[in-house]
Design brief:
Layout: E1 10-14, H1 20-29, E2 35-39, H2 51-67, E3 72-75, H3 78-83, H4 85-88, E4 96-98, H5 100-110, E5 113-118, H6 120-125, H7 127-135, E6 140-145, H8 149-154, H9 161-176, E7 181-185, H10 193-197, E8 205-207, H11 209-224, E9 236-239, H12 243-254, E10 260-262, H13 265-281
Parallel strand pairs: 1-2, 1-3, 2-9, 3-4, 5-6, 5-7, 7-8, 9-10
Helix pairs in contact: 1-11, 2-13, 5-7, 5-11
Organism: Merismopedia glauca CCAP 1448/3
GO molecular function: glutamate racemase activity
Catalytic activity: L-glutamate = D-glutamate
């Protein structure tokens, strides 16, 4: 088993810029930690993919992150958390956290009539409904798949007039059910909060699982004795697609233009493994 040290990075991954909501929470709650962020922008969105594709993508990302020496992985992607977390969690030596269980726990603490907006794949899996009802079988849960939200965020079309109409179409069924709580079942969706607030009554509680998965990560790192106490390294940003486009898209969420590397997952993992094998052969 690989030894994990406190100074190693936390790996955070998503299909694109959505996971930056989790990254911002890490900056707020765990400012001393070093981060490796990966956006699988060549294959975004994940919400219309098959479970088999999602599991394959997640394994490729985790294999690469393992080769980069991370101490923990956070799936800042609800679709990956819903379809792959339970399958891959036992395959790696470092802890892997998903956003669904922390989000479900937070929702049950504040609501009885809970709406969940998610990608089609996450909604179809009923992962949130299952998790929420396992915690409290007496609450009511409604889930809505929202395939247009991720492209809107990735293309930075949040403030366009059509976006409000799209949001009304997805949220109206939940409003009609009388929800008192809305869960962001995709890490892209907090970016749309200004739009949602124009539609929803102010008393509806908005639950962002990003806040709660980082709190769970803090507890896990503390339990394992691997909280970093030194100054953090600069965040390393990597993508599988257009690195310049990701950098420009990130400005709105990070307040700066990050340096972004383009990574070929299969080639990077293969090259790293070959180097390790060659090095081992010398000893």
């Amino acid at each position: 088993m690989t030894t994990i040290s406190a100074k190693q990075r936390i790996g955070v991954f998503d299909s694109g810029v959505g996971g930056l909501t989790v990254l911002r929470e890490i900056y707020r709650q765990l400012p001393q930690e070093s981060i490796l962020y990966f956006g699988d922008t060549a294959r975004v969105p994940y919400g219309n993919r098959t479970p088999e594709e999602i599991i394959q993508f997640v394994r490729q990302i985790l294999d690469w992150m393992e080769s980069q020496g991370i101490k923990m992985a956070i799936m800042a992607c609800n679709t990956s958390s819903a379809l792959a977390l339970d399958i891959v969690r036992s395959e790696y030596d470092f802890p892997i956290l998903g956003v669904i269980l922390p989000g479900a726990k937070a929702a049950v603490e504040v609501g009885n009539c809970i709406g969940v907006i998610a990608t089609p794949a996450t909604a179809k899996s009923h992962a949130y409904q299952t998790a929420i009802l396992e915690i409290n079988p007496n609450v009511q849960v409604w889930e809505v798949g929202c395939p247009e939200f991720v492209p809107i965020v990735e293309q930075n079309r949040i403030h366009e007039a059509d976006t409000l109409e799209v949001a009304k179409r997805y949220l109206q069924p939940l409003v009609e059910q009388g929800i008192d709580t809305l869960v962001y079942g995709c890490t892209h969706y907090p970016h749309l909060e200004p739009v949602f607030k124009r539609i929803l009554a102010p008393e509806i509680c908005l639950v962002d699982p990003a806040v709660h998965v980082v709190a769970a990560a803090t507890r896990e790192l503390d339990l394992l004795g691997i909280l970093n106490t030194r100054s953090p390294l600069p965040t390393r940003f990597c993508v599988s697609g257009n690195n310049e486009q990701f950098a420009q898209s990130s400005i709105n969420w990070l307040g700066c233009t990050p340096e972004v590397e383009k990574v070929n997952l299969s080639a990077s993992v293969s090259t790293t493994l070959t180097a390790l094998e060659n090095r081992s052969a010398l000893y």
